[in-house]
Amino acid sequence: MSRVRADRRANGWRAHVEAVHDANAGVTEEILTRSRDAHGFDPYAWVAQDICGDGPVVDVGCGSGPMAPHCRHWIGVDTSRPELHLATERGRQPVMLASSDRLPFDDGVVATVLAVMSLMVVDDPAASVREAARVLRPGGRLLVLLPAERPRTSADTLRYSALLAALGRRSLPFPHPDIARHLPGLLADHDLAITADETRRFAFPLRSGADADLLVRSLYLPGIAIWRRSAAPVALRCLGHGTLGIPLRRIVASRSASGRSRSR
Question: DSSP code of 37?
Fold first, then answer.
């Protein structure tokens, strides 16, 4: 892909992601807080299990701030004004309008950096990981939550097949769909050692047409015709009530005790 074409693609994705969150602030939180794993946890509670007990927690791409109730010293960072406004309305403060690749914090002062459903949509995942490593104190943790392909049930496969057929897609798109594959190398570049790596299925209930509509509104669908977007919830509703599995991957990485970051 040429540099010009890559830049156009990146700019197009940036505009699309901004438009989704401008029009649907809080939609990711609404989906994930209603989704449960086999232990009864939602994804935010799952991530929160590995937050360092004390010290500042910087939530990169915080959205409407669903991680705030799980943190003692939470600071939300996002580039979406509507999402940050909603977080503030819900009493989740302080928040900052800032990019993940230019965090407004000194070196080595943060106990935990959260990147919950954000690394696959930020402009530059590598720069975001570099910044996380920079602000983490020695022994601090980076907690990442990303979409995954598995685990799924046979019913999930049927519902995803119907959804993708209605959308005319082979998979659900993201600006950086391969970030999970590249992440171990990016972490190692900055003395961030993976200490946990796990995938789980979270069941989102599909009990009504409103549930199906909400799910489709939460997706990033650049270039998808309006009629296809309208057909997607219908395709889900035609399969009746049930759940749709949302497979997620949680990666926990710790900063080395030396606190040194290296780059190639």
Answer: -
